[in-house]
Amino acid sequence: xxxxxxxxxxxxxxxxxxxxxxxxxxxxxxxxxxxxxxxxxxxxxxxxxxxxxxxxxxxxxxxxxxxxxxxxxxxxxxxxxxxxxxxxxxxxxxxxxxxxxxxxxxxxxxxxxxxxxxxxxxxxxxxxxxxxxxxxxxxxxxxxxxxxxxxxxxxxxxxxxxxxxxxxxxxxxxxxxxxxxxxxxxxxxxxxxxxxxxxxxxxxxxxxxxxxxxxxxxxxxxxxxxxxxxxxxxxxxxxxxxxxxxxxxxxxxxxxxxxxxxxxxxxxxxxxxxxxxxxxxxxxxxxxxxxxxxxxxxxxxxxxxxxxxxxxxxxxxxxxxxxxxxxxxxxxxxx
Length: 335
What we know:
Elements: H1 2-7, H2 14-20, H3 24-39, H4 48-54, H5 58-73, H6 83-108, H7 118-125, H8 130-140, H9 143-147, H10 149-155, H11 159-168, H12 175-194, H13 196-202, H14 205-218, H15 223-255, H16 278-285, H17 290-322, H18 330-334
């Protein structure tokens, strides 16, 4: 009976529908949360498990996601990584853009410019969609490229944003708050290194937690903020693909000397779905960022959608022009 239930067809294929939408596992629950917060803001404030999971559960779910991310770095993917490729992706996609965002913060202040806060810039520029990278690199690249998934895993979560904000003086991040952000990641590193079985178990954590986390984040955002922040998020998403993807492309071409395969670098020009939770996590550590959380989360959500659609298109176009749009054959490469 139980086996039949597991293998039976869905009456309404919610899950498959969400998967067909770019970044749908994050965007659809987020939008539902926004709608409930806008039209029935007290519906989930009834206490008990309901409020704990659907209204107040974002931080706990973020912590679980960070723990799982740490376990992936020391798990199966990292064994394939070429250090040079991973370093170039991390440098070009995350570290340089985050450093530029901090420089802009020192010039314009925390509120940023054109309605885009420095918090939004760091969340959007500093997190990359590891799943999209892994899928694209797995099809058109080789083990050096798929192994660079480690870079995407490393920049997931709020602690890099906290480090940049704290080191620059833009954020007053208490030491214990920084430690609290890193502890789940560090424990995940240890668990993944000691027991690879846990790494395999934790592989499914993002697909489980991201929809619930996104819904909880959405319950703190109003529909008006989404509508007003959508245009900025659109431009930021395009900017992520062009700027961070372009930087990674240049790194592939001139540092790694990958020739016709350099276009793979544009696939790094994305924003991770869990980046939508970074503004809230940073504001918990430094309440001065609280006024920017709502707009930053809305802009980040838009950028996630834009980059998920645009980055693989641009990467494929560049690969095609350079003659590198060939599917990787692991069997022939092993021979």
